[in-house]
Structure formats: structure tokens, C-alpha cells
Amino acid sequence: MWRQQSVFFRQAMVVYDVVVSAAAFLAALFLRQRLGEDDGSGVFGMLSRAASNVSFLDVGPLSELDLYYQLLAGMLPLWGLAFYWSGTNDHRRSYRVMALRFFRAVLVGLGLLIVAQFMFRLTFISRSLVAMFAILQFAALLMGRVLLMESVRMLRRRSDDGHRVVIVGANDGGVAFAQSMQEQSPFNIKILGFVSVPGESGHPGARPQLGHVGSLASLLDRQPVDEVVFAVRGRQPEILRDAMASCEVRGVDVLVNLPPTVPSKGTMQIANISGFDYPLLNLRRTPTSEARLAIKRIIDFTGALVGILLTGPIMLFVTIAIKITDPGPVLFRQVRAGRNGRTFTMLKFRSMVMDAEKRKQELMHLNEMDGPVFKIQRDPRITAVGRFIRKTSLDELPQLFNIFVGDMSLVGPRPPLPSEVDQYEPWQRRRLSVKPGLTGMWQVSGRNQIDFDEWMRMDLDYIDNWSLWLDIKIILKTVPAVVLRSGAS
Description:
By secondary structure, this protein is of the alpha/beta class. It is 53% helix and 10% strand. The chain has helices spanning 2-37, 42-52, 65-86, 95-119, 127-158, 172-184, 216-222, 237-250, 264-274, 290-325, 356-359, 384-391, 399-405, 418-421, 452-464, 468-483, and strands at residues 163-168, 189-196, 209-212, 227-230, 253-257, 280-283, 331-337, 343-349, 409-411, 437-439. Mean pLDDT is 81; it is low at 262-275.
């Protein structure tokens, strides 16, 4: 996922630089307009008198401001081309190198503006405005880049979690790749450690050691892993094939070395696309469009915020009802498994008596669900208010806060208990490869009337066929499912 995020980040940086340039143009237009309208006193008067001493600069009042706004609209795509050609979206470079590239991009943009002026006879363009804009654009681009990258670095330092990577191959290539990821990525890459393969002597920098490649499957089951990098070549392919199959069935991303027969030019092209100087092939079974995933997160954030505001009175009513009818806390906090097994605290309105977890073992023989999930229709642990809020799904409303902070999504597989995940078969663990959701295919397809294996297959079908439109359809189907209480207990 970090490669797609890196590509998306580089594309977004071009848009970011274009927006900064547009702001610099508007600022230059404002300053130039004030310069032309000044009566000779104050700071602008001093600047006006200084500019009047330069023969090729004009300092008179600007006219036809609408034409400047049209010029701005026409320059936006040209700036995008200038930034892309100048390589200003390469986040790996130092600020000194970026200053040179921004200087080149500003010159290219000015050249394109001059060409457009002569081609389309844009006689209204003020030379002093162009000069002011060039200075402001360069300063704004450089300051904007410093602000952006330092903000990203601050977020990386404050983030406890990150993209969790295991490297198969305790060799020079594996260590070099780990260093490249941590030094060049703008994202929080967390190298969990190295897994050795037969015949390796081991590299002193390959630390920590996580075991042998044959135990990779159990390693993936013990802790959250987002990606496995195979930094090995030509070593017992049957062992590596089994290790890759362990990743694939669990929905863990895989990176493998390019075979040595791939031409060097092709290798460099792949490195340029990924943004990292290390040739790799990618195998992935989770959604790959970072633009659509970013839109999904915007929808989640907005939907959760609107949901919290709209359902606030309802949540207040439920809070009062629980407090009046049953002693104890209003919210039930439970540790659940999120993306790739990360744990988080999921919130629900408490619908059971205080000692519900202790009494669970006494009721295990009444479980009506197959697989590791426990559920019975007439659960004696459920309170009177709890039965109502479960039937109406009001007990799920606090999960809007989980969605707001990013632990969950509006649509996705339901987050399981870690104890349930421990009982999953390998193919079922792939449902953890995406962020869990408040609603999903299971909720709109009968819920408790569906057996466990079919539930798991529906979640995997959702992952394989995910789209924004599918999320919207599930959200629209959730409303009648909740109103009609289909499958709820």
C-alpha cells in the first residue's frame, strides 16, 4: 500500500504546488493593484516610486481584472506541466535541490506565459505584476514545501502505528531495502524484522530476527503485518512459493524481487513509478486506488461527523435510559481486531448486565452461530433497554466516534474479537486486510440468518469487488435493513 500512497502523494504534490502558485498569483495581483492605486504615501507609495525608476516596469492602475482571472485559469494546467517536468514532486530530495527545481519550474512557467502573451496577443499583462508574481511564487512554493514536509515528519513522529513490514531475506538486499523504505518514504514505515531463508549466512544489520521462512504463516497470525518483502533470489522456490501462498490467503501484500532477466531499463521504469530505487514486483488483493481510498476516508469522516450531530439527541436519550434502568457505565468498550489484526477499542452502548462476560461460558452450549462467533437470540444477559437498542441497532451509534478517528469505516467487514481471529482458518484472515466497518454485506443480507462461512465469503467478495458505488449501495440498503430489523437480535 505504501507504494500506491507514494504515487498518490507525488500526484497530490503537483496539485498542491499548483494551488500554492494560484494563491501567489492572487497575492501578486492584489499587491500590484494596491501599488497602482496608492496616492504616493505609505509603503506602497515608496514601492511605486522605486518601481517608476525602472524603465521596463509599469506601475499605473490595473484595468480589466476579469482578464487576469481568466489568465489564472489558463495558467493552472501549464504550471502543472512545469512542475511535473521539473520533478518538484520528488519528496526524497533535499530542500536545496527542491529550491533549484522550483526555480527551474518558475522559469518554465514564466516562459510559457511569455509564449502565450505573444501567441494570443495578451497586451493587458503588466510587466511589474509578472515580476512580483515570479518572486512571490518561488518564495511561496519553497515555504509551502517546507511546511508540508515538516508537517508530515511531525505526524510520523507522533504516530504510534505505521505500515508494518516483514522482510524475507537476512541479506545485503533486504537490509538495503529496509534502509531505503525508512529514509525515503514520507509515510511511517515500521520494519518489524527479518525472516531468514535456507543457505543464508545472515547479515549483521538484519535485526531483529523473526525466525525462519517456514514459520512465516504463524508469524502472520501472531501479529499485524501489512506487507511481506521477499528480498531473495533463486533459493528453494518451493519454500518461497508456500510462504507467498501464506501471505496471499491472508490478504497480506507481497513484494518480490524482479527476476535477473528483466532489462535494466524496465527495472528503472518500475523504480521511477514506485518512487523508490529498488526494483520490485507487487502482488496485492486489496483495493489499490489511493485516490478512491482517500475519497472513502473523506466520506467516512464527513458521514461520521454528520451522523454524530444528527443522532446526538438519540444518543442522549439512550444514555439516560441506560442510566435510569441499570447501574453501571453507559458505554461498553471492547478490544476488537482492525486492519491486518491491529487492535482498537470499539464503542457500543451497553446492552447487557455488568457480569455478561463472566456468564458467557455458562451459555456457550446455547450458541446458535457456527464458527468462533457467539450469539443466541434470547440471551438472558441482555437488559430490557438493551433488547430495544439491539433490535433498532441504536447500540452501534457510538461507533461513529470510531469512524471519526479512523479506526473504522462506514462500510466494511465487522470487527471481530481477537479471540475469534485466533480461531480463523487461514483463508478467513483475509477479511482483516481492510479497515472494518459499521455496516457491510452481512448486515444487509440477513445477518444472524447466515452461517459463519458464508458470512466470511461475503466479506471477501466485498474486498475483491470494492468500489465507492458498492459502499453507497450498502449504505442505502442498511437503512431499510435497520428499520425492518431484518436478522437483528
